[in-house]
């Protein structure tokens, strides 16, 4: 009898415990493994073109890695799976567990549909080094704050990566009955990274060789290629965080002078695990603030909100670092973390637009767009999250530009109107010459004024 390996956001063959479980069961049952990917129309509608394009290319790479045997079906997973299981005569479907609200609900529905056919849904592993919900404090409760979570997460530890099964007995499934063909790659202008497990591994190894040294300092510089860009591969499971953690450990064992950089990188991965854990315990945080800190009337509404969003999404706020970031989002489907924080802060605290609107725009354009990471980072910036930046710490977009893009190269790369302004002066184009360079907009708001409005709103919220 064959078993089914249902790939979702774990589009890889290496370090994939669910695939190993499927292979072991198939061997015992003298059957093959049916590799399956389901295009769920609900998810297709929710993801923007860059993410859908990356997914389509990554599924194509996975198909190639299975020797073209990947079965791709479109439809509601519970219906597709019940049909596939019946067609091929499988008694189990292997997956990595899903913890996000949508995935957890979907899997419960799948489990119920499979039960009617007599088949089981077998969960092995998850997209995290430690599954959400496992790291608890001494009282057996979830952590509220990041640093103690990180320490307990480190103390908990994780298993070593599992090797890719040497030979995978892929089942040959008749094409006509079970295939809808590979997903189409939607049209997008974004300049996206190469997709698939091999490309992700190559990028990661290049990062280890060329940029791990110095990461702790360089990671703050949007003008330099100092970060791993692994977020896309982690989002789609082309790489597993366990692999990255093991490689970091090996790098430091070889060369102790990399220790600080590796610790910093591990801390960033711990944020990813913390956000997944928070969302697991508070599924409502995907759309609602975990804490209400501002009065209802603090938010822009109607035309004011529309105008603010129009300037922000187009990268035409008149603040160079903000505009560069918003244009990088459209240009690459990825934005440097420092700049994500600055543009998010600007939307919430200078333009007084609710974080949910910004999160929605990010999700439509980010190639690494991921509900726990996106929504909880937005809540962190907005000051509404579990362990969030205090609301009164408001990013000054000009100072952030001078501190983290000191030569102005990042701004000039993304805002061509400002290319004629050399050096750090590019962060304050209104101080250069009599008029702004052709086509570059006036500032939509005065940061000093809006900062005060935000702080007053915050004080009113605390008093009420
Ligand atoms: P690196 O510096 O190389 O970091 C290594 C890995 O650590 C990343 O790949 C990522 O998995 C993790 N990491 C780093 N910073 C964070 C962080 N702040 N929170 C959680 N994990 C982190 N990340 C996403 O993966 N998807 C999102 O949808 C997303 N939305 C964001 C929205 C906002 C408003 C902000 C401020 C941050 C968001 N982030 C998101 C986090 C972070 O910006 C990206 O993970 C990071 O920029 C990815 O680039 P990198 O892989 O080169 O990072």
UniProtKB/TrEMBL annotation:
Co-factor binding details: Binds 1 FAD per subunit.
UniProt: FAD binding residues: 215, 227-231, 265, 368-370
GO MF terms held by the record: deoxyribodipyrimidine photo-lyase activity; DNA binding; FAD binding
Site feature location: Electron transfer via tryptophanyl radical: 299, 355, 378
GO biological process: nucleobase-containing compound metabolic process; response to light stimulus; response to stress
Claim: rRNA-binding is one of the keywords in the record: no
Record keywords: Chromophore, FAD, Flavoprotein, Lyase
Positions of the Photolyase/cryptochrome alpha/beta domain: 1-129
Cofactor: FAD
Cleavable signal peptide: none
Family: Belongs to the DNA photolyase family.
Name of the protein this chain belongs to: Deoxyribodipyrimidine photo-lyase type I
Species in which this protein is naturally found: Luteimicrobium subarcticum
Taxonomic lineage: Bacteria, Bacillati, Actinomycetota, Actinomycetes, Micrococcales
